[in-house]
Structure formats: C-alpha cells, structure tokens
C-alpha cells in the first residue's frame, strides 16, 4: 500500500511503498493505529529539512516522558517535610501516574482516529506542561500544596500514557528507512529523561532552596517541545478512520497472558526504581546529590541494557535463559540496594541498572517475537500496556505501604526478591518458542 492512498490531493513527501503490518519487524516499534481503515498516512512534511525537524521533535517528546517520575522522588524528603504531606498522599502520588498509564492507554488510538496522532500528541504535551506547572502550585485550598500535587501528577500520567502509545507508531511510519537510528534515539531519549530527572532535580533544589522551583524546572523543556511541535501538528489535516480489528484475540491466548504478566512484574520493579530508589538511598544515609547521581547512573546503565538485550534475545530460538537472568539481576540488584553493604551501593545500583534496562527491553521485544503479524502485535501491545501499567503500579503502592507500616524499606527488599523470582518464572514461560494464537 502506498502512503498516498488516502492523502487526496495533498501527497505525503515520501513515496516509498511500505507495509503497515509486516509479518516480522526487528525495530520493536508498534503502530497502535495499524487497524485503521484507511491506513494512517505519515506526517506531511515538505522536504528533508522538515523531516529532520519532525524527527527532532519526536525525540524531544520522548525526552520529557519520565522526568515526572524521577524528579519527584529526588526531592521527596524535602516535599514531605516542607509541604507536610500525610503518608497516604506520598503513596498516592507515587502510584497514580503509573496507574493512569494503563487507564489512558486504550484511549490513545480512539483519539488518533478522530483528531490525528500528531494533534493528539500536541494536546498531550500541552496537558503534560500544564500538569508540571500545576504540580508544585499552592492553589490556596485546604491542604496547601496537596491539591496541586494530586491534580498535576494525574494530568502528567494521562498525558504520558497517550504519548507512550502513539509516539512509536509515528516514528515507525515517518522514518521507515531509518528505523534503527530513530528507534534507538527514541528509546534512549526516554531513558535519558528519567536519568535527567534523577540527576538534576536535587541540584536545582540546592541552588534555589525551594522544592517547588525544582519541580517547576521540568515544565520548561516540556513547554519548549510544545512550541516546537505546534506548527508541525497544526499543518496536519486528519482524515476520518474506522477501526477494523484483525489478528487473533490476544485476551484468550495463554502465551499472551504469560508475556503480559512478565510485563506486569517488570513494571512493578521499573517504576519503583523511579519512585523509591532515591528515597531508599537517602534513608540509608546517602546525601541528596549523591543519591540522585547514583540513580541517574543506574538509569544510564539501563540504556546499555536496552540497546544490547533485544538484539541478543532475537538471536536465539527462545528467550528463556535471557529472560530469567535479567529478571534475577533486577530483583537482586534492587534488594541489595536496600539491605546490601552500603560501601558497595554503586555495584548494586549498576547491577540493578543493567538488569532493569535489559528486562524492560526484552519484555517489550516479546511482543514482536511471540506474534506473527503487525495486527496481533498491536493488540498484544495494547493488552500489555493496559494490564502491565495498571497492575504494575501496585509495585510503587506496596513499597509505600510497607514503608508506612514498618518504618523502613527492608520489607520492600524482600518484596523485590519475590517479584524478581516471579518475573524469572513468567519470563521463562514467555520465552518459549511459541506464538500468540
């Protein structure tokens, strides 16, 4: 199918023939709009310079999708003390944004069919910017900063959910001949987003002396990307699309459920790293700047794992061994960061980073390796995001509740040993050479 099929008089710049649902795709990027009829066309750009500008915008969007998680945890002790937050509020603020990733994920393709993926992304970045601005605000209501923190955090979670679903499809459709480069830049940008939030937030707090300034700081890059992407999205004139479901029913597949539960368990650990690793280290006596640096380096090591693990996994007929190893590395690294010798904390954080990056990458790679066509891959991806993030948020919830109940993070270390073992079990089963349907 050519990209000009449904473009009318306005033809997209690229004329190459592409298949919107290839039987196998090594890029790992899932097009959430693959079931649309007529097929969603690439973003309209006039020349190669505009195409490069579009690529820059998409990468910069990815660079804003994790700061909301890691920036909050970097100054959590200061927020708790200065804003007088109750214990339940801390648990909610670390759990709700992850839960909303699963709640709002199914809405993204529906909105894209009505308004176009580019305009939905623009709207999501506007909501993300507004949420980041609202988060530290004191609206003068009872509770001080708490209403703003709750509303702003919820807005950020909803906006990131839409971007998580639609951004990979845009990268895949607009750069069919540069999938390796753009896919690598996109995934690296998301990891870098978490690393920047963890590494710089406390430094901004130390310079400004106010936690509100440290959180407001992250609205600036989001606002810049919003302005840069605005003319691109505004030029698009979305056509009406209908959803015609193709592929197998993933909800009735045992393989799909094994892959999804594997995703749930990795999400429980992944978002708990963003939410709780810095507070864990600070409770152990590490100062705020060093704790942020440790978390940032751990996340940078996630990038290395995410770069090499998918290629390694794809080389084998099944992925049972690699899934098991990276799950145990992640659970063990997290537990040792909590109750291992503090002198070796950099080693534990490095083990956690390499394990977590590899675990996240191979869990997502299972989508392509366990399906035979793009339609089934998109449905499995939707199932994994909805269930994976929705149930994965229980990890941050349980860590918060265990800390509230016991007064320490030791019980959370035991929890992650158990979660790591369960992830190894389901990773072993998901890694068998079988297909959904």
UniProtKB/TrEMBL annotation:
It is found in: Cell membrane. Keywords: Membrane, Transmembrane, Transmembrane helix. GO terms for molecular function: transmembrane transporter activity. Its main location: membrane. It comes from the Bacteria. Residues 1-29 are annotated as: Disordered. The chain crosses the membrane at residues 51-76, 88-108, 120-137, 149-171, 183-207, 213-234, 255-277, 289-309, 321-339, 345-369, 381-402, 408-428. Residues 50-435 form the Major facilitator superfamily (MFS) profile domain. GO terms for cellular component: plasma membrane. This is Major facilitator superfamily MFS_1.
């Amino acid at each position: 199918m050519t990209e000009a099929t449904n473009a009318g008089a306005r033809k997209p710049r690229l004329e190459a023939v592409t298949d919107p649902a290839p039987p196998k795709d090594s890029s790992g990027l899932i097009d959430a709009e693959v079931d649309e009829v007529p097929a969603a066309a690439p973003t309209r750009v006039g020349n190669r310079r505009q195409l490069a500008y579009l690529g820059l915008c998409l990468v910069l969007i990815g660079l804003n999708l994790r700061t909301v998680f890691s920036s909050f945890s970097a100054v959590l002790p200061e927020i708790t003390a200065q804003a007088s937050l109750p214990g339940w509020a801390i648990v909610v603020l670390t759990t709700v944004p992850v839960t909303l990733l699963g709640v709002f994920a199914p809405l993204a393709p529906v909105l894209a069919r009505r308004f176009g993926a580019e305009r939905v992304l623009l709207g999501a970045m506007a909501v993300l910017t507004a949420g980041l601005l609202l988060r530290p605000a004191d609206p003068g209501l009872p509770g001080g900063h708490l209403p703003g923190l709750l509303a702003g955090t919820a807005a950020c979670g909803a906006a990131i959910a839409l971007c998580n679903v639609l951004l990979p499809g845009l990268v895949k459709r607009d750069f069919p001949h540069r999938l390796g480069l753009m896919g690598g830049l996109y995934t690296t940008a998301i990891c870098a987003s978490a690393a920047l939030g963890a590494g710089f937030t406390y430094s901004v707090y130390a310079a400004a002396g106010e936690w509100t300034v440290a959180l407001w700081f992250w609205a600036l890059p989001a606002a810049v990307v919003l302005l840069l992407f605005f003319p691109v999205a505004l030029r698009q004139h979305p056509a009406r699309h209908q959803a015609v479901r193709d592929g197998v029913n993933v909800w009735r597949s045992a393989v799909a459920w094994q892959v999804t539960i594997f995703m749930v368990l990795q999400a429980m650990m992944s978002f708990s790293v963003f939410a709780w690793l810095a507070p864990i280290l600070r409770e152990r006596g590490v100062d705020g700047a060093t704790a942020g640096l440790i978390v940032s380096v751990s996340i940078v090591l996630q990038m290395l794992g995410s770069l090499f693990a998918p290629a390694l996994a794809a080389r084998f007929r099944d992925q049972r061994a690699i899934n098991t190893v990276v799950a145990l590395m992640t659970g063990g690294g997290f537990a040792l960061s909590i109750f291992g010798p503090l002198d070796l904390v950099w080693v534990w954080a490095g083990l956690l980073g390499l394990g977590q990056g590899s675990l996240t990458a191979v869990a997502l790679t299972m989508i392509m390796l366990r399906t035979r066509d793009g339609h089934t891959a998109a449905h499995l991806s939707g199932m994994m995001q909805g269930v994976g993030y929705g149930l994965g948020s229980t990890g941050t919830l349980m860590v918060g509740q265990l800390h509230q109940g016991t007064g320490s993070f030791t019980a959370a270390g035991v929890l992650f040993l158990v979660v790591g073992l369960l992830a190894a079990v389901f990773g072993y089963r998901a890694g068998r050479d079988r297909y959904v349907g």
